[in-house]
Amino acid sequence: MISPEQAGVVIMLIGTYGLMAKKEPIKLVLSINVVSLGLVLFFVGLAYLPGKDVPIMPTDPVDPLPATLMLTTLVVDVAITSLALAIIMRMRRDGL
């Protein structure tokens, strides 16, 4: 069975291939998103520890910092994606 870390690396490699192989700006933005999601999966998989409790009233808690950082990463990715797509739309409208 494949671990979350291995799946994250595979997804990052797929996104990296998209960055190298594609020339259309929208496909490049989507490839950056794929790399970012693979990175999030990789780090969330590294933070998982079997047998640990959630960090709410725990006896043996797991560290909540990686999940918090990955949530922040996803929010920043949405903002960057929307900005990049707005710039692409503006470029196409202006004929660049």
Kindly describe this structure.
The protein has 96 residues and is mainly α. The chain is built from 3 helices and no strands. The protein has helices spanning 4-21, 25-47, 65-94. Helix 1 packs antiparallel against helix 2 (25-47). The protein is elongated and about 60 Å long.
Short descriptors:
single chain; about 100 residues; mainly alpha; 3 helices; elongated
Which value, in Å, is the CA radius of gyration? 17 Å
Beta-sheet strand percentage? under 5%
Q: What letter string, H or E per element, gives the SSE order? A: HHH
User: What is the rounded distance between the termini?
Assistant: 47 Å
Label the overall shape: elongated
Low-confidence spans: pLDDT under 50, at least 5 residues? none
Structural class: mainly alpha
Number of helices: 3
- Main sheet specs: none
Mean pLDDT: 91
Helix content: over 70%
- The number of distinct β-strands equals 0
Topology overview:
Blueprint: H1 4-21, H2 25-47, H3 65-94
Helix pairs in contact: 1-2, 2-3
How would you summarize this macromolecular structure in one to three sentences?
This protein has 96 residues and is mostly helical.
